[in-house]
Amino acid sequence: MITNPMREALKPNSLPHFFCPGCGAAQVLNFFVRAMDELQIPMSSILGIGGVGCTARIPVYLKLDAMHGIHGRTLPWATGIKLMQPDLKVVIFAGDGDAAAIGGNHLIQAARRNLDVTMIVVNNLNYGMTGGQVAPTTYSTLRTTTTPYGNPEPAFDLVKLVEAAGATFVSRWSTNRPHQSVRAIKKAIQHKGFSFVEIVSQCTTGFGRKAINSASPTKLLDWIKDRSLTISEAEKLSDEDLAGKFVLGDFVDKQAPVFAGSSFLPPEEDE
Amino acid sequence: MLLRRPRVLSGTHFMLGNFAAVEGALAAGCNFFAGYPITPANEVSERMAERMPEVGGKFLQGEDELCSIYALAGAALAGAKVLTATASAGFDYMAEGIEYAISDEIPMVIMDVQRTRGENFATQADVMQMRWGAAGDHELIVLAPSSVQELFDFTIRAFNLAEKYRNPVIVMSETTIALMRERLVIPPADQIKIINRKMTQAQPGDYVPFRAEMGCVPDMAPLGKGYNTLYSINPHNEFGSIKWEPEIFERQYERITQKILMNLDDIVTTDEYQTEDAELILIAYGSETRPCKDAVDVARGQGKKVGLLKLNTVWPVPEKQILAAARKANKILAVEMNMGKYAGEIERVAGCHAEVKRVTKNLGAIHTSGEIVAAIEESLR
Amino acid sequence: MIAERQAIQFCGFGGQGVILAALIFGSTAVTKQGYHAVQTQSFGSETRGGECQAELILSKEPIFSPTADKVDILVAMSDLAFSRYVGRLKSGGILIMDPDMVTRPSRNDLKIYEIKANHIGKELGFALSSNMVFLGALHRFCGILSDQQLFDGIRENVAERYAEVNIKAAQAGIDTMSGLLK
Known about the structure:
The structure holds 3 protein chains of 3 kinds.
Chain A lengths: L23 H16 L6 E5 L7 H4 L3 E4 L5 H11 L4 E7 H7 L1 H10 L4 E6 L34 H8 L3 E6 L3 H13 L4 E6 L3 H8 L5 H10 L1 E3 H5 L3 H4 L3 E8 L18
Parallel strand pairs in A: 1-2, 1-3, 3-4, 4-6, 5-6, 7-8
Antiparallel strand pairs in A: 5-8
Helix pairs in contact in A: 1-7, 4-5, 5-6
Chain B lengths: L10 E6 H11 L4 E4 L6 H14 L2 E4 L3 H13 L4 E5 L1 H16 L4 E7 L12 H6 L8 E3 L4 H18 L2 E7 H4 L2 E6 L43 E3 L13 H16 L2 H4 L2 E4 L6 E6 L3 H13 L4 E6 L1 E3 L3 H10 L2 E6 L6 H8 L4 E6 L8 H12 L1
Parallel strand pairs in B: 2-3, 2-4, 4-5, 5-7, 6-7, 11-12, 11-14, 14-15
Antiparallel strand pairs in B: 1-8, 6-13, 10-12
Helix pairs in contact in B: 1-2, 1-6, 3-4, 10-13
Chain C lengths: L4 E9 L4 H16 L2 E8 L7 E9 L11 E6 L2 H7 L3 E9 L13 E4 L2 H7 L6 H13 L4 H11 L5 H19 L1
Parallel strand pairs in C: 1-4, 4-5, 5-6
Antiparallel strand pairs in C: 1-3, 2-3
């Protein structure tokens, strides 16, 4: 029997996984494994973190040390680890609710501090695991299980949010763009500082059925594709025209000092 | 020009309680602190911000209590001995982080300086919150210092217990002692007993992260070295894999509680004062033991046979010692600075053997010895 | 010399250095004379300007109750705080007060020492040192420390650049109390 060579990256006893058929988070797991393989970084030399949600399950399946199961606190965990083990590479997998709602304050603070971690946010525009509730990334008028008459709230643009807060690598792609996603993840892993990759993704079970009246993965992928455009295409459009669109590309790639703690001796005292 | 002070400030000091707690933590080997500003615990953070860089440790001011408690978990898994300090309302936020640390057996010390709701007056109203704040079946160790010296000593002990049992340990501080200056004697560093967590000798692949005999504690492994351990709060088997079988729930809850309950003689400590022939015994913890001690002296001066059982460990409940006190005396006074909380535990343990009366006060100030003497007189009338 | 166990209360308004005076006296007694000491404090929600008090119990024996029912000595630096705390002074107690800042009480069961601490501090060119004038006077009254021990205690607890002026103020307090005790 032929097994996928990438199975080596997964913990032997962790399968079967719990993703729904056609789930984008499982694609992102693939993207990540491929990125690590292409970079030739041994999986078990890094630490994976997941909070709560479908995306948060990704590190559970990987052959590495991982923390999992607390909603929204991925970045505080990472902060403690990085202060004690600055050379340990830390990759966080978070859904949009985990990253931007319950963990929203930690997100902007970690970006501000330029915490040296990679955060991969799978944005499926809703709370998939709990049944498709509205999220801060669900844009206006979309129907979800808790916005049955259409979402009255505006949505976060996570790229703009973390960029404004101080993130030093920011990128957004979608599950429609596997190559670009893998490339962005590779860049993020190699980046020194807070690297943020948002991957717009399809949630068939929670999001599709309510928002576009279809649980078909391909229909959802097409729906995302129809609303996606490049940075240069977006520059020609007004803010109103950009509402409900996904601008894809690499937005920020710069260097800044990374976070190493909140208190240091004055320079003449430091050794 | 700053002078870089050593880790252990051996000598005699006149020190603020919150500072003494910091010095205790440092003497125990603490090298990571995270906290969020809250009165009356601020002096712990402020001194840690000064001292951590001096001893080569890390100080983090988190964006909130959640950041602080989870940063503790991360740092502890990365090998650090970790402390946070908060006060009552801040502890509310930390409860889930403590639950996580219990579930994945992560050593950490939490200092909770109890205060009255919304203000910073003296109280012991959170003695139950500390024990039961975290969800799920669990055991916690809570130590109750009564003086600046004990804030130092018990903080060291808290670290030793946390490391030994891979469990959160809470130092139950109070406004009364935290903001008090008092004589503190710090012994030479080589006279301070330090316990460090056991790290595994097993090779990656042979290591089973959560496997231990009942009543025992598994060894820890470093991060990023191929041990591939999953620290999830979800139900997990001894390999750390998330599983849903009932046996896993049973095993997980049993072992993480039995490692505490099967070692009570090592964990639980009390002090007794004038109890040998006592007909009435005061039972108290924390700062309230102080006016109790004075009251015992006053009562003895009047020829009354009164003693004090001082609970240094409030959780787990020192059942053996409370029971012995109840069998010795026929009257127990449960003294505390709240509306009567821990008294319920004392009644549960002692109720069959002695008459238990509550002496309670939650008016923002410690009992005076006169108030306790009056309660003794009333009880012996 | 004072009795084996003394409860001393310092009161004034925030910014006068009420707590610092208590801290230095306690710290010096503990670290240089082997005393036990407990110092507690309270201050208004506005740290400067509000009422402020510090209580210090000194004893040769370990101290249990951290606050006393009645105090033996009251050091009063402002009128408002004094009127609030004078009731805690035991009958026959010692009151050390600044007559320019505090109205002499009607109680006739007290031994009163008037120290013009504010005036003395101003004459030294450092009005904020009035707490050290009081400290010097209290120290002279209690007689449990040597002058040198007190000065070392001050040096250990104030910023280096203010040490000398504070010691001068304490010396002035010692001299004033010496005059009153003659």
